[in-house]
């Protein structure tokens, strides 16, 4: 039981590094043609960039199904749970809180949450494939605290 919990937690934490790498080198690299939709103003709720979420969701679901059906691969189910939890957190934070794709009011005085939000806004100051910074989701260095950010 503890090992399963640690596998879910470890996968969740691993996903931050995986998401950072994917965001910087894949989304702002060879898959910019999908991700660009997230960096430009548009009407409607759909972005081509949402295809990344579908790919991650289908992958996590596949891991959960295989892990629940094949005893020897049961650990894959917990990896799938970790990816799913990360995806839920990503949706709530990124799509609901930061980009307001679901219209709810949210204000926080939490310094760390504000730092992550500010880092993401700084990431979106660049509307091109190259030149962006702050590719993470859960981690943002202290340089993104309000007092540290120049030109804001």
From TrEMBL:
Gene Ontology molecular function terms on file: beta-carotene 3-hydroxylase activity; iron ion binding
Domain Fatty acid hydroxylase: 10-136
Enzyme class: oxidoreductase
Record Pfam families: FA_hydroxylase
UniProt GO BP: carotene metabolic process; xanthophyll biosynthetic process
Transmembrane segments: 6-27, 48-66, 72-93
Keyword terms: Carotenoid biosynthesis, Membrane, Oxidoreductase, Transmembrane, Transmembrane helix
Superkingdom to which the source organism belongs: Bacteria
Enzyme Commission number(s) of this protein: 1.14.15.24
The keyword Transmembrane helix belongs to this UniProt entry's keyword annotation: yes
Family: Belongs to the sterol desaturase family.
Protein name: Beta-carotene 3-hydroxylase
